[in-house]
Amino acid sequence: MSGSSLEMGMRCIKYMLLCITAMFVLTSALIISVGTTIYAIYFDVSYFLSDQFFSPTTFVIAIGVIMLFVSLFGCIGALKESTCLVNLFAIILSLVLVLEVAAAIAAYSLRAQVAGVVGGNLREAMPHYYDNVDVRDSFDFVQSRLSCCGVDSYLDWGDVTPKDSSTSGIIVQNITVPNSCCAESRYVDMNTAECVSLYANGCLPRVIYLVYQSAGLLGTGAMTFAFIQIIGIIFSFSLAKGIRKAKSERERRRWEIQERMINAHTSLDPHDEKKAPVMYVPFHGQTLA
Predict the structure, then answer these.
(1) Strands, E, within the chain: which ranges?
(2) Residue 175 domain flag
C-alpha cells in the first residue's frame, strides 16, 4: 500500500466516522423531540393517568440526552484517530441500545393498561368537578380539546350536582352540563351567547385512543432508533478496526524506511560496508602547510 493510498484510506475512515456521529446527533435530537412531545400529550391529561405512564417518556428523553453527549466521543475519536474513543463510543451505544429496547417494551406493555386506568380515573374524578379546581380544569381541557362530553356521554353529568344554583353551565333535560361541552353556540345579543348543541361523544374512548396511540408511537420510535443504533454500532467497530489496521500499516512503513536508511550504510561483510565520506575541518590554531 502506497503512502498516498494509506492517507486516503485514513481520510475516508475519518469522514465516515464523522458522518456517523453527525447522524447520531440528529437522531438524538429527534429522540428528544419525540419524547418531549409525548410527555406534553400525557401532561395535558395527567390528572387521569398514573405516574407509570410518564416513565417511558422520561426514559426516552434521558436516552436522547445521553446519546447527544456520547456522540462527542465518536467525533473526537474520528478527529484524533483514536481507536480507544471509537470503541468506547460503540460500547456506550450498545448499552444505550439495551435501554431503548427496555423503553420500547415498557411503552408497549402500558398500552394494555390504558383503558382500565383512564376509565377508572375519569369516573372517580367526575363527582368532584365542582369541588376540586384541578378536576374542573382537567375536564374542561379534555372536553374542549377532544370535542367530547362526560365519560360515556353528556348524561353522566346527571349524577354530578352543582354546589349552588349560581354555578354556570348548560341545562339540558334538567342536567347541568359544563360549558366546555358546548359544540356550537350563537350570540343572543352582543354580550350573551347561547349553546345550541353539545358534543355527542363521551371522553373516555377519545382519551384512551390518544394515550394508546401515543404509547405506540413512543415504542415504535424507540425501536426504530434502536435499529439505527445497531447499524451505527457495527460501523463504529468496523471503523475502529480500520483505524487500527491503517495505523499498523503506517508504523510498518515507517519501520521499513528506517531499516532501509540503516542498511544503506551497514553490511554483514566488512569489505562491502559502505563508508560515509569523511570531511576534515581544521580546528582553531591549526596552521596550513
Answers:
(1) 170-172, 175-177, 182-187, 193-198
(2) yes
The residue among 206, 230, 261 that closes a domain is 206
Higher pLDDT, 91 or 252: 91
Q: In this structure, are 41 and 54 located in the same domain?
A: yes
Residue 259 lies in a domain: no
Kindly state whether residues 154 and 95 are assigned to the same domain: no
Domain count, the chain: 2
Write down the pLDDT at residue 289: 42
Average pLDDT across the chain, whole number: 79
Whether residues 196 and 54 share a domain: the answer is: no
Alpha carbons 180 and 143: distance in angstroms, whole number: 6
Q: Please report, for residues 32, 68, 71, 111, 170, the alpha-carbon distance to residue 91 in angstroms, rounded to integers and kept in the order given.
A: 21, 15, 12, 31, 61
> What percent of the chain lies above the pLDDT cut of 90?
4
147, 200 contact by CB (below 8 A)? no
CB atoms within 10 A of CB 123: 15
State pLDDT tens for residues 143-153.
989 989 989 98
For residue range 45-82, list pLDDT tens digits in order: 888 888 888 888 888 888 888 888 887 777 777 677 67
User: Do 100 and 160 have their domain in common?
Assistant: no
Query: Residue 280: inside a domain, yes or no?
Result: no
Q: Looking at residues 79-107, what average pLDDT do you find?
A: 82
Domain of residue 73, residue span:
3-115+211-251
DSSP string, 143-203: HHHHT--SSSSGGGGGG---SSTT---EEETTEEE-GGGEEEEEESSSS-EEEEEE--S-S
Q: What is the dihedral of CA 208, 210, 211, 216, to 10 degrees?
A: 120
CB–CB of 54/39 below 8 Å?
yes
- Residue 286 lies inside a defined structural domain of this protein: no
